[in-house]
Amino acid sequence: MKILIADDEHISRMVLERTLRGLGYEVDVSADGKEALAKFELHRHPIVIADWVMPEMDGIELCREIRNHAKDSYTYLILLTTKYEKQERSFGLSAGADDFIVKPFDRGELKARLGVAERILNMEAQLREANIQIQQIRRQEIEIGASIQRSLLMAHAPEGINAFEFAAMNLPSLQIDGDFFDFFVHGPDVVDVFLGDAMGKGVPAALLGAGTKSSILRSISKLLADPNRVRLPAPKEIIQTAHTSLARELMNLNAFVTLEYARLDRAERKATFVDCGHTQVLHWSAADKVTRKLSGTNFPIGFIPDEVYTEFTVPFGTGDVFCIYSDGVTEARSPSGELFGTDRLTSLVDEFCEERASQLLYRLREGVRDFTESGPLDDDFTVVVVKVGQPSEPWNMHSETFPSHLDSLAAIRHFVGYLSHEAGLASPEIDMVQLATHEAVTNVVQHAHRRTEDETIEIQVERLSDGVSIKIFYSGPDFRPGPVSQPEMTAMREGGLGLFIIEKSVDTVRYFATETGRKCIQMIKRIR
To answer: 87 or 259, which is more confident?
Structure first.
């Protein structure tokens, strides 16, 4: 073990050094606090013995500096002193010192105190190793929970339903949460949608959400299988059946689940809701151009054992929009701590209600991310958007032309973003596609078009069976970079950082010229 000495007295320093070497320690020597701090920053000595009184920087200040610098490991600090007063010792401890040795020191006492230091350092190392193992277990738990969320809690929005257009998204927070949603298609005109949030965090919440979702689907199947049934079971009947099977177990776990269950019936032009203590549903009416907040009076599932669930019905027309969401949306926080709130969400629905369901959902996502300044979410962002009316025809390719200016970047990111979402990419994959497109377009504007005016850039987004292809068409000099390696992080874009970001953000990058002479950058991102 290596010990750092800091003492301005030559004889005292020499005696201490020889004594420590005689006890089997490696020793670094410094004549004042500043020199000692410089050596400590290079080698991070586990033990430092410093004289209290030194020129330049005394032992007290050295202790403070080491405590401020050494955050990742512990250093045992011993002060050499002639000070005996209790008040002065307290002052040294408050500066970060662990122990004191009175000058002139006794060899036996020094050896004993160093033994204490080694035991404390060994215990600290064991504690740090235990913390590392706990963090590894926690990471594994998060991975398991994320897998549960992907495979059990989140469903794919149904396609090919002529009466409705659906879009759904889950943007995970830093923690595993219990959000879940699913769809049950009864026919071309009737679809059930439910979105819930299990109390708590972590894998237990995810398992609770998965169990609740499974119980609801079993309840639907059980009721539909009744040979005496002549019509669809009512939403309140489905929830009552699920509640009966879950309530006691949830109460034994001191847990509950909030849920919004909706049945959309195009033939009868009505939506029927069972609100189990969930967030308000937003309903934008195309007839009167107003967004209404819908809510019921039921308790969450598992809150009380004898709850009797009721439902309410609202009419709808072609073009109407329903937005069902988790509280992770409205409780997203700005850097100053302000909540996003229902009013901001309502304003976004009002503003973009006439867009396609997937575009509206993408706008909501971007609105929350702008509000949080892309900061971490405390809870999952989970939203289902339903638009009444004939869905847009499935698309294979969209193309749009933009002015070749950096001012176009925001519009290009949005264009690529919502189409990537429609193509099935998850939120992190969309971010990477947008980042790669941003870097590629920036390179075109700053290099290929910097000596020309009135240039344009065509962005072509193609839907692949397993991902999305982005093609950027432009005029200008040919550009075909060789192999891209990781640049210095201080390098400018011209130094290769932009090319490196593109390479790492997508699965395939191609640079080529078309038959008409236009240049093209193609990027392909696969669905994971």
So the answer is: 259
